[in-house]
Amino acid sequence: MRRTSASLVAGALVAALAWASSPSSPAIALDPSAGVADLTQDINQILSDSRLTIARAGVVVKSATTGEELYATDAGKLLTPASNTKLFTSAAAVETLGLGYRFPTTVLNGGRKVGSVLTGDLVLRGTGDPTMLAEDYDALAAEVAAAGIKVVTGKLVADDTWFDGQRLGNDWSWDDESAYYAAPISALTASPDRDYDAGSVIVSVAADGDKVKVSTTPETDYLKIVNKATAGAETDVLIERQHGTRTVVITGTVADPYQEWVAVDDPTAYVSALFRKSLAKHGVKVLGPSVAGAAPSGAKELAKHESMTLGELLVPFMKLSNNIHAEILTKAMGRKAANQGTWSAGLKVSTDFAKANGVQLINMRDGSGLSRRDGFSPSSIVQLLSAVRGKPWFTTWYESLPIAGNAERFVGGTLRSRMRNTPAANNVHAKTGSLTGVTALSGYVTSAEGEPLIFSIMLNQYLSASPKDIEDKIAVRLAQFSRVTATSGSVQLRATDEGAAGDLECSWLKPVQC
């Protein structure tokens, strides 16, 4: 079974073609002094914001047409990129795996079928598909039943050996362990929604008279729910999985319905529970326990599900800045290149790809940017963005980047509420990045004269309010850039939509929809 989703394939093709590898217009042979000097002065003024007095700011702007560096400050400094890391991971993944790459999930016969009885083990084998839903595991169970199997005398074996056993990324914070954006990585996992937040379950609460009703998406008894919440006049509730366990404790008061995305402790065991439940629903009884292990050699395929293509997956991955997609793709690259589904093997692929494309300063510790030891310079990011314009897959990749000010969720993504009603709206294609004290924005913009520009803005170690508006002001100013005409007046921005995530991009706080 294959799932494709037309709603995920979005973006302006005309704009993308303008960013194709060949220069979209002849080199501009004009005296740059007026326009470039004006741009330099304005960006310097924007960066003089008092919030950056004690912070670190690196900015690079380059013409994609001429290769000219139009602006640079601290271009070579190693800065924390946050989710700008995904630019490197996604590009390396497309280069290594291909736009048509799919993740297969299979059910295997590990024994011998006699009538309706399978004497031996039933094996569920995964390769990391982050788009698997409970309904997909249910469909696999239905296929097993359709094959005439009613009883399995052996075990239900969950084969997650396509990846190694390291579940959490390098340097990830212990207090993120139960957060959906830092879910454990496994070759067998499941998502609760079509944002494909692999490795998590949605826990919902609602007042039911004087009690609080709890439900999960998908329905599962894998989590142990301890409900201490009470109905009240307002919703002030905490839903949190206790570290290292599958116990979710709910405290506080509930008036209006509320939900939280919670990472499971063990995706492989969670998927086993989902699949076993579906097998029972379809009349297949497994006599043995659920265990983790490798499929025996010679096991025969009973059922198979294939994911959407990587080209399609790029949209939820990049638009919504999905950390788990980045880490799964990192291990998938390692498996493809070195037959090792490990972070170290996959990060080597990403790093080698970057260096082969002219990037000199790079320190990758994970694929998503969740590690605070990830490091890139603004020049490194601009170099990568320049180099990939020559790739045959560039148009698809370019369209997967968030587009400023576009309210459509799978088009605007993490930029949907930013730079609306400005020259940057539906113009800037860029990757956001956010950690506490870190923000970054890197990508592409077309100037007022139609010249394609490449930029990277990295702001680190600020202590006060988020300076994302500084990124936006620079991006808008680049959209207004003219080599021969001075831009008069200050850059005006529409305020970010009410309810956005503030210091962190909206994808970090799941109830706040990007």
Short description:
Helices cover 26% and strands 23% of the residues. With 514 residues, the chain is of the alpha/beta class.
What order do the helices and strands come in, and which of them pair?
Elements: H1 13-18, H2 33-47, E1 56-63, E2 69-73, H3 85-97, E3 104-109, E4 112-114, E5 117-119, E6 122-125, H4 134-146, E7 151-152, E8 156-159, E9 200-208, E10 211-217, E11 224-227, E12 230-231, E13 236-241, E14 247-254, E15 258-263, H5 267-281, E16 285-286, E17 290-292, E18 300-306, H6 310-319, H7 323-338, H8 343-356, E19 362-363, E20 375-376, H9 378-387, H10 394-400, H11 409-412, E21 429-435, E22 438-446, E23 452-460, H12 468-479
Parallel strand pairs: 5-7, 6-8, 7-16, 8-17, 11-14, 12-14
Antiparallel strand pairs: 1-2, 1-23, 3-6, 3-18, 4-5, 9-10, 9-15, 13-14, 19-20, 21-22, 22-23
Helix pairs in contact: 2-12, 3-6, 3-7, 3-8, 4-5, 6-10, 7-8
Q: What is the molecular shape? A: globular
Number of strands: 23
Tally of helical segments: 12
Reading side by side through the largest sheet, how are the strands ordered? 2-1-23-22-21
Sheet with most strands: 5 strands, antiparallel
Q: Indicate the proportion of strand residues.
A: 15-25%
Runs in which pLDDT lies below 50 for 5 or more consecutive residues are 1-18, 20-30, 494-501
Straight-line distance between termini: 29 Å
Rg, alpha carbons: 24 Å
- Averaged pLDDT: 90
Q: In terms of structural class, how would the helical and strand content be classed?
A: alpha/beta
Helix content: 25-40%
Protein name: D-alanyl-D-alanine carboxypeptidase/D-alanyl-D-alanine-endopeptidase
InterPro entries: Beta-lactam/transpept-like, Peptidase_S13
Keywords: Carboxypeptidase, Hydrolase, Protease, Signal
Family: Belongs to the peptidase S13 family.
